[in-house]
Amino acid sequence: MSEFERFGDAQMDVLREVGNIGAGHAATALSKLIGKPVDMDVPRVNLVPLGDIAEQVGGAEAVVAAVYLRVEGEAPGNLFFILSLESARQLLLELLRMETAEGVPFTELEVSALSEIGNILAGSYLSSLADFTKLSLSPTVPGFAVDMAGAILAYGVLQFGDMGDKALLIETSFFDGIDRVEGNLFLIPDPESFSSIFASLGVPPG
Questions:
Q1: Quick one: what percent of the chain has pLDDT higher than 90?
Q2: Could you read off the pLDDT of 57-68 as tens digits, one per residue?
Q3: Residue 122 contacts by C-beta under 8 Å, 6 or more apart in sequence?
Q4: By Cβ atoms counted within 10 A, which residue in 51, 93, 153, 164 is the most buried?
Q5: Can you give the pLDDT at residue 12?
Q6: 81: closest CA among 12, 129, 153, 132?
Q7: How far apart are CA 167 and CA 63, in angstroms?
Q8: What is the pLDDT, as a whole number, of residue 97?
Q9: How far apart are the C-alpha atoms of 93 and 206, rounded to whole Å?
Q10: How far apart are the C-alpha atoms of 154 and 156, rounded to whole Å?
Q11: CA 201 to chain centre
């Protein structure tokens, strides 16, 4: 039985708590960034096969906006924050009051804003995971891309090397007033890193 298969309810409860605390930290950080309250729903947290990531965001050929970065430390891996183009524009409008035109590439200022939001989310969730696991984890400077989901993930493999075959999916909803924006955060530990994470959370060795 693989570590992934042995990952049970207790470990998932811990990861959900990580997601919950990370969401709270992210909401606080985003509020400070834009100078007004930001609310975030309790995120949905799941472990998914790497091959299912593209399907989670509309399919491999769906054009999306993605912030991506490398996680360094005792459990290295890759992290992607992926939004539909509609959600990215809505996020800019709702949080930053930045209106974007349909079919027009994001401006340098908009890219900077989306990258900073992705960076805040990554830092918040990684800090929460590090607190629970007692592992040292830190994000690199994020990159940004608008492309098909499959191409972005393939680029991640080329840029960062072989990725693990499982991902921690954190589905996040921001809201300001009545409008909500949904994003997907994927933490993809390197093949050997899940062992460190699982061991730190009490999953017995095989």
A1: 11
A2: 889 999 999 999
A3: 67, 69, 71, 79, 81, 139, 142, 185
A4: 153
A5: 79
A6: 153
A7: 20
A8: 77
A9: 49
A10: 5
A11: 20
The number of residues in the chain equals: 206
Res 43 pLDDT > 60: yes
Asked if 106 and 88 count as a contact pair (C-beta separation under 8 A), the reply is yes
- pLDDT at residue 1, rounded to an integer: 46
- Give 38's contacts (C-beta < 8 A, 6+ positions apart): 27, 30, 31, 95, 174, 176
User: What pTM was estimated for this model as a whole?
Assistant: 0.84
How many angstroms separate the CA atoms of 167 and 21, rounded?
A: 19
Q: pLDDT of 83-109, one tens digit each?
A: 999 888 888 887 777 776 666 678 888
- Nearest CA among 178, 135, 167, 192 for reference residue 45: 167
Single-letter code of the amino acid located at 159: Q
User: Closest Cα partner for 96 from 106, 84, 81, 82?
Assistant: 106
How far apart, in Å, are the Cα atoms of 196 and each of 8, 45, 130, 133?
A: 16, 19, 12, 9
Instruction: List phi, psi (to 5°) of 142.
Output: -75, 155
